[in-house]
Specification:
By secondary structure, the chain is mainly beta. It has 2 helices and 4 strands, in the order H-H-E-E-E-E.
């Protein structure tokens, strides 16, 4: 896992800022709200869905941080075409992955 950049003394934790991001938000506005570029990005493709959804591409950006109690936390934004589809903030980095969103077929 990459090391996180030094935190600004006046910056809120990433997971707190991430919680202000909502699905449907513009990607650039969401990253500006978080206040720094992501630490990692994963890109992928989906197959056509059973209800006629077209195949497509998506990306998930990840931000890593260390909580006050020393736990590693990860926050992520999944987006497609510049629009946020889902938000996952402050999950323990060694915890289970969240369940797949029903609005995201083929993932």
């Amino acid at each position: 896992m990459p090391t996180e950049p030094p935190a600004r003394a006046d910056a809120a934790p990433v997971h707190v800022l991430c919680a202000e991001v909502q699905p449907g938000m513009n990607y650039r506005d969401a990253v500006a709200l978080i206040g720094r570029e992501p630490d990692d990005t994963l890109s992928g493709h989906t197959a056509a869905g059973p209800a006629g959804e077209p195949p497509g591409s998506y990306a998930i950006d990840f931000w890593y941080e260390t909580a006050a109690d020393g736990r590693r936390l990860v926050s992520s934004l999944r987006y497609r075409g510049g629009t946020i589809e889902s938000v996952d903030c402050g999950r323990p980095a060694d915890g289970p992955a969240p369940p797949a969103s029903p609005a995201s077929p083929g993932t």
